[in-house]
Specification:
This protein has 101 residues and is mostly helical. The chain contains 4 helices and no strands.
C-alpha cells in the first residue's frame, strides 16, 4: 500500500492546524518533550514579536521535539487514527484524512 500527501489549504478535510494538534498529541504521550519549550518559545518570540529570523528556522525550532521521539511513524499513524475516529476537537473528522492509493 502506498501513501500520498494530501494538502488541505482551505480546511475542508481537517479543521485546525495539524502541526499544533500533533504537538499536543505528542505532549500527552510524552510529556518530556516540554524540555524543548524554551527553545520553541524563543524562536516564536524572535520571529513573530521581534520580526527577526525566518519562518524556516522558526519551524525547525518548533519541530525540534521530534528528535526525542524514536518511532515517529508510529506516532504519526496513531495521531491520524485518533483524528479520523473523531477524538480530537470533539467531532468526527472526515475519513478523507487517511487516504491510501
Amino acid at each position: 500500500m502506498k501513501t500520498i500527501n494530501v494538502y488541505d489549504f482551505d480546511g475542508t478535510i481537517y479543521n485546525g492546524d495539524s502541526s499544533v494538534d500533533f504537538y499536543f498529541y505528542c505532549l500527552r504521550k510524552k510529556p518530556l518533550i516540554l524540555k524543548y519549550l524554551p527553545k520553541q518559545a524563543l524562536a516564536f518570540f524572535k520571529y513573530y514579536v521581534l520580526k527577526k529570523g525566518n519562518i524556516t528556522i522558526t519551524k525547525e525550532e518548533f519541530f525540534s521535539f521530534l528528535n526525542s521521539i524514536k518511532d515517529i511513524d508510529s506516532y504519526v499513524n496513531n495521531f491520524w487514527k485518533f483524528v479520523v475516529f473523531g477524538y480530537f476537537h470533539g467531532y468526527t473528522a472526515c475519513y478523507c484524512c487517511y487516504i491510501f492509493v
